[in-house]
C-alpha cells in the first residue's frame, strides 16, 4: 500500500538536528561517567567511547543514506520492507515500536529519579512516584498531539540549553584537569578486558541516532535534510559524550567518580559550591524532559507508518484533523508506557530503570543490524559486476555498521539475546493475524467488485 501523505511537513533542518541530538543525549550523559568508572579504567572507557562512537556513526550514515533515498515516515520499517519484504519490515516495526515505548518508560523514570533528589517523596513513596511519572508522560503526550512544530520547538530550546550547560561543565573540568586522576590508564582489574563491558554501557547512550529518518514524512526537503540532520546530530552527540567523559575522569579521582550518584553535579560543586548541585540537577531534569518529547514523537511515527500499511491495526494511522499529528499512535503508546510504570511502581526507581533499559536496548539492536543490511543490499543493486571485492567496496560503510551492530548483540550477553529472541517470537503471531486479516479484507473487496 502506498503511504498517504497526511502528516504536516513542519520540521526544518535545525529542529531535525535538535531532534537527533536531543534524543541521543538523555539521562545517560549525566550518569555514564560514574557507571563507566565502576566497570573499567580510563583507558578502557575511552576506547569503548571511540568504538561506540565510530560504530554509531557508521549506523547513522546508513540511516542518513536510506533516509535520503526513501524519505518516508517510519525509517527502519520502510527501509527493511523495501530491501527484504513485508515480514522483515514488520519485524523491524515490531521491535522498534516495542523498544521505543518501553524506552519511554525508562526516560520518564529517569526524570522522576532526578526530581526525587530534590523532592525525596517521589523516590521514597512508590505511589507518589507513579503519579508524578504519569503526569509527566501525559503532559508531553498532549504537547506532541498539539503539533510536531510545537513539540520540535520545545525540544530544540531544551537541547540548546543542555548543550550550553554541558559545554560549561567541559570548560570548568578542563581548567581543573589533573593527569594523576587518569593514571594508570589501565589499572589492574580494569584493563582492556573490560572494554566490551564498558561498550555495552555506552550503547544505550547512542540510541536515537535514527530519529530524523523516523520522522522523515514531517521534515521539509527530506531528501537532503534527513541526511544532514542525522550526520550533524550524531557528530554533536559524539563530541559531547567524549569530551564530558574524558574531562570528568580528569577532574575527579576514579574511586570517587565510581561512587558518585551525580558525577557532573559533584565535580562542579567542588569548584563552585554546593548550590551548583541543585543547578545541575535542575538542568538534568530539563534536558531529560526534552528527550521525553522527542522519543514520544519517534515512537508514534513508526507505529503510524505501520498502521498506514495495515501491518499494525489501522487505528495507529489516524491523524488528528486539526493538528495533523498521529494522535492515536501517541495515545496508545503512552497508555502502554503507563502500564509499564504501573507494573514497576513497587520497585525502586533504579531497579525499574535498569529493567526497562535492558528491554529497550535488546529491541533496537536487531533493527540497527537490519537497517545496515538494507543499506548493503540497496548499495550492491547498482553494481554491474559483483565479486567479493566489488561487494566490499560498494558497501564498505554499511558493512562496518552491520558488523558493529552484530558485535554489540554478541557483547550484550546471553540474557539480553534471549529476551531479544522472545520479543521477536512474540511478534510472529501478531504478524500472522494481521496478514490473514488483510487477505480476508482484500477477498471481501474483490467479491464486492464482482457483485457490482
Automatic annotation (TrEMBL):
Subcellular location: Cell membrane
Coarse class of the protein's main subcellular location: membrane
Top-rank lineage group of the source organism: Bacteria
Pfam families, per the entry: AA_permease_2
Keywords noted in UniProt: Cell membrane, Membrane, Transmembrane, Transmembrane helix
Membrane topology, from the record: Multi-pass membrane protein
Segments passing through the bilayer: 12-34, 46-66, 101-121, 127-146, 158-177, 197-219, 231-251, 271-297, 327-345, 351-378, 390-410, 416-434
An example molecular function term from Gene Ontology annotations: transmembrane transporter activity
GO cellular component: plasma membrane
PANTHER family hit by this protein: AMINO ACID TRANSPORTER-RELATED, ARGININE_AGMATINE ANTIPORTER
Protein name as catalogued: Amino acid permease
Organism: Collibacillus ludicampi
Taxonomy of the source species: Bacteria, Bacillati, Bacillota, Bacilli, Bacillales
Amino acid at each position: 500500500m502506498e503511504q498517504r501523505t497526511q502528516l504536516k511537513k513542519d520540521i526544518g533542518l535545525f529542529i531535525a538536528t535538535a531532534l537527533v541530538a536531543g534524543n541521543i543525549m538523555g539521562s545517560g550523559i549525566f550518569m555514564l561517567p560514574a557507571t563507566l568508572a565502576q566497570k573499567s579504567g580510563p583507558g578502557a572507557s575511552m576506547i569503548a567511547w571511540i568504538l561506540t562512537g565510530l560504530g554509531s556513526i557508521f549506523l547513522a550514515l546508513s540511516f542518513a543514506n536510506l533516509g535520503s533515498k526513501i524519505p518516508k515516515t517510519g525509517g527502519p520499517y520502510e527501509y527493511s520492507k523495501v530491501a527484504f519484504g513485508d515480514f522483515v519490515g514488520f519485524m523491524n516495526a515490531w521491535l522498534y515500536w516495542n523498544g521505543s515505548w518501553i524506552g519511554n518508560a525508562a526516560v520518564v523514570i529517569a526524570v522522576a529519579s532526578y526530581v526525587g533528589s530534590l523532592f525525596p517523596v517521589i523516590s521514597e513513596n512508590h505511589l507518589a512516584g507513579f503519579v508524578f511519572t504519569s503526569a509527566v508522560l501525559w503532559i508531553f503526550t498532549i504537547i506532541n498531539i498539539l503539533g510536531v512544530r510545537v513539540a520540535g520547538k520545545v525540544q530544540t530550546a531544551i537541547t540548546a540549553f543542555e548543550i550550553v550547560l554541558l559545554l560549561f561543565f567541559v570548560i570548568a573540568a578542563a581548567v581543573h584537569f589533573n593527569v594523576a586522576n587518569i593514571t594508570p590508564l589501565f589499572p589492574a582489574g580494569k584493563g582492556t578486558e573490560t572494554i566490551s563491558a564498558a561498550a555495552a554501557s555506552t550503547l544505550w547512550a547512542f540510541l536515537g541516532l535514527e530519529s530524523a529518518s523516523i520522522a522523515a514524512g514531517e521534515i521539509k526537503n527530506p531528501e537532503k535534510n534527513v541526511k544532514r540532520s542525522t550526520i550533524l546530530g550524531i557528530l554533536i552527540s559524539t563530541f559531547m559524550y567524549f569530551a564530558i567523559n574524558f574531562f570528568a575522569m580528569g577532574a575527579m579521582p576514579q574511586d570517587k567518580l565510581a561512587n558518585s550518584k551525580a558525577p557532573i553535579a559533584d565535580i562542579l560543586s567542588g569548584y563552585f559550591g554546593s548550590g551548583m548541585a541543585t543547578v545541575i540537577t535542575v538542568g538534568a531534569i530539563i534536558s531529560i524532559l526534552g528527550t521525553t518529547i522527542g522519543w514520544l514523537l519517534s515512537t508514534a511515527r513508526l507505529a503510524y507508518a505501520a498502521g498506514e500499511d495495515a501491518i499494525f491495526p489501522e487505528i495507529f494511522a489516524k491523524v488528528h484533523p486539526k493538528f495533523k499529528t498521529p494522535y492515536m499512535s501517541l495515545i496508545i503508546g503512552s497508555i502502554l508506557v503507563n502500564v509499564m510504570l504501573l507494573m514497576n511502581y513497587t520497585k525502586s526507581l533504579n531497579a525499574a530503570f535498569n529493567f526497562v533499559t535492558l528491554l529497550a536496548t535488546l529491541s533496537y539492536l536487531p533493527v540497527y543490524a537490519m537497517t545496515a543490511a538494507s543499506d548493503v543490499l540497496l548499495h550492491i543493486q547498482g553494481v554491474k559486476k559483483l565479486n567479493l571485492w566489488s561487494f566490499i567496496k560498494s558497501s564498505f560503510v554499511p558493512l562496518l555498521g552491520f558488523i558493529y551492530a552484530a558485535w554489540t548483540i554478541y557483547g550484550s550477553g546471553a540474557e539480553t539475546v534471549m529476551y531479544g529472541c522472545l520479543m521477536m517470537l512474540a511478534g510472529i503471531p501478531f504478524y500472522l493475524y494481521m496478514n490473514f486479516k488483510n487477505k480476508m479484507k482484500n477477498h471481501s473487496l474483490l467479491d464486492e467488485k464482482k457483485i457490482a
